[in-house]
Amino acid sequence: MTRFAYLLLLLPLAACNQSPPKASAKVAPVIPGPDLATLTDSAAPPALLAYGRQYPGSEVLIKTRLGNIRVKLYDDTPIHKANFLLLARKGVFDETMFNRVVKDFAVQGGQTYGARTIRLKRYRLPPEIRPAHFHRKGALGMARYDDEQNPHRLSSNTDFYFVVGEKLAPNQSQAMAGRPLTPAQVKAYATVGGVPSLDGQYTVFGEVIEGLDVVDKIANEPVESDKWPVHDITMKVEVVK
Q1: Domain boundaries, the chain
Q2: Measured distance CA(61)–CA(88) in Å, rounded
Q3: Residue-by-residue DSSP string for 21-79
Q4: Degrees to nearest 5, angle at CA 137 with 130 and 145
Q5: CATH architecture of 35-239
Q6: What is the pLDDT of residues 76-98, one digit of tens each?
Q7: How many CB atoms lie within 10 A of CB 184?
Q8: Antiparallel, parallel or unpaired: β 139-142 and 236-239
Q9: Other C-beta atoms within 10 Å of 141: how many?
Q10: Confidence class of residue 120 from pLDDT cuts 50, 70 and 90?
Q11: CB 188 within 8 A of CB 165
């Protein structure tokens, strides 16, 4: 009887000494699209156009500690649109932050600092400047180097900005634009505000449809002498539509 009880006690102990089954290794999901490391100025446009046709999208959500910004991307700037969708889906923007804040002008994001790096080649995008898309408050554009260094006005692939600007009288906006403005554009600059001096110089490829107040919050953050925010404003970007 005693021996039988002893055997029963050993069974659970033996089970406890068995090695637990090995957990299956987690495999990172494969995000479709071109290999970012292989893209160049010449290879990027056709690759991005093909990607945009195969994996369309129209809206993205940019999440920050100050709130969320929902953005609509324009169909008639297909290369910039596809590029933004691709980088958002691959998580590239999640490694970046808003790195330049100029009150009453614009807030710019897409850069990193320190040990954080963007793991992709710095290809550029051909301009898709459309007269109908102007620099009203809330416009989404892509930054670039100035004309002296970049006469063809090729856009950065990651450095984007939201226009803040100021409200302007019709004669002010027309003088700053350096080109004829439509009545609707003059009205927008007067009632909403913006930076007409950027019109025709940079590609505008989207606009804020929710969260313009968050753009204002970013624009009012304290900054260092180089316009970098004192407190990091990191972001998470996802395609929502």
Answers
A1: 35-239
A2: 9
A3: PPPPPP-PPPPPS--GGG--TTTHHHHHHHHHHHS---EEEEEETTEEEEEEEPTT-HH
A4: 55
A5: Beta Barrel (2.40)
A6: 999 999 999 999 999 999 989 99
A7: 11
A8: unpaired
A9: 27
A10: low
A11: no
| E-strand stretches of the chain | 59-64, 67-73, 97-102, 106-111, 139-142, 160-163, 204-210, 236-239
C-alpha distances out from residue 196 to 51, 79, 85, 99, 168, Å: 32, 23, 27, 22, 9
Query: Of 143, 190, 146, 148, nearest to 163 (Cα)?
Result: 143
Length of the chain: 241
Spatial separation of the C-alpha atoms in residues 190 and 194, rounded to whole Å: 9
The CA-CA-CA angle for residues 190, 196, 198, to 5°, reads 160
Q: What token pair was written down for 50?
A: 């093909």
Whether 157 and 151 have beta carbons less than 8 Å apart is answered as: no
Residue of 32, 66, 102, 71 lying closest to 234 (CA atoms) = 66
pLDDT tens-place string over residues 157-191: 999 999 999 999 999 999 998 889 999 999 999 99
CA distance 26 to 21: 15
Residue 15 in this model has a pLDDT that exceeds 70:
no
Q: In this structure, what are the phi and psi dihedrals at residue 18, rounded to the nearest 5 degrees?
A: -70, 145
Average pLDDT over residues 94-108: 93
Mean pLDDT of 48-59: 95
Q: Which tokens in the block code for residue 152?
A: 């063809």
Planar angle of CA 146, 152, 158, nearest 5 degrees: 65
